[in-house]
């Protein structure tokens, strides 16, 4: 029981750290950069299950808000005012949703389920992140921006690549899911 908790904590921390690494791999674009954080969110949801995936993203957000520069534009409590903060909230909810959908797939979730789960996660991330960009620019950053411009910057410029990544990661995640689940069982058996 204690071992499985330690193992969970390690996995949660690893995925929080990987999301930070994903933030450093970025292509600057106006307001919303292209980053690889979302791939880690897909993998967290697919591999860790809903609860631990959510925890990994909450740890990531808390570490960033506490001041470590783990987000694309730094860190600190005032990051909540950044236009891209909504995506970070979306990562937490999205990771949970991905894990939840996969958990509903029984012992052997199909490849299609992994892909659909990632696409649902993508939807959740953008549904929270894109409106947040609009509100941040227009309501508290004093940068009046039309809805169509926000649509281009916060959705259209990155969603195509993210959908491709969701599909590829979904196809690939099933394999890791089974390898890791087997390993997890072994670790828990050995350390019992
Ligand atoms: O400030 C942050 O650290 C969050 C950046 C979020 C970038 C979003 S995630 C979804 C979309 N896809 C990308 O590649 N970039 C945006």
UniProtKB/TrEMBL annotation:
Keywords: Cell membrane, Membrane, Transmembrane, Transmembrane helix, Transport. The chain crosses the membrane at residues 32-49, 58-79, 85-102, 114-135, 150-173. Its main location: membrane. It is found in: Cell membrane. It is a multi-pass membrane protein. Pfam families: BioY. GO terms for cellular component: plasma membrane. One of its GO terms (molecular function) is biotin transmembrane transporter activity. Belongs to the BioY family. PANTHER family: BIOTIN TRANSPORTER BIOY. This is Biotin transporter. It comes from Ureibacillus thermophilus.
């Amino acid at each position: 029981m204690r071992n499985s908790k330690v193992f969970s904590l390690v996995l949660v921390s690893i995925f929080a750290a990987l999301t930070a690494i994903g933030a450093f791999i970025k292509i600057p674009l106006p307001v919303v950069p292209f980053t690889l954080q979302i791939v880690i969110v897909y993998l967290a949801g697919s591999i860790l299950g809903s609860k631990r995936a959510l925890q990994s993203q909450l740890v990531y957000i808390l570490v960033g808000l506490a001041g470590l520069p783990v987000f694309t534009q730094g860190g600190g409590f005032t990051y909540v005012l950044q236009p891209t903060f909504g995506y970070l909230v979306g990562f937490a909810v999205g990771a949970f949703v991905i894990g939840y959908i996969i958990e509903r797939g029984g012992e052997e979730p199909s490849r299609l389920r992994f892909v659909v789960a990632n696409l649902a996660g993508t939807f959740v991330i953008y549904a929270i992140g894109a409106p947040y960009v609009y509100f941040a620019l227009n309501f508290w950053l004093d940068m009046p921006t039309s809805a169509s411009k926000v649509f281009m910057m916060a959705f259209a410029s990155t969603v195509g690549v993210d959908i491709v990544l969701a599909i590829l990661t979904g196809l690939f995640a099933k394999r890791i899911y089974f390898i890791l689940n087997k390993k997890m069982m072994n670790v828990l058996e050995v350390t019992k």
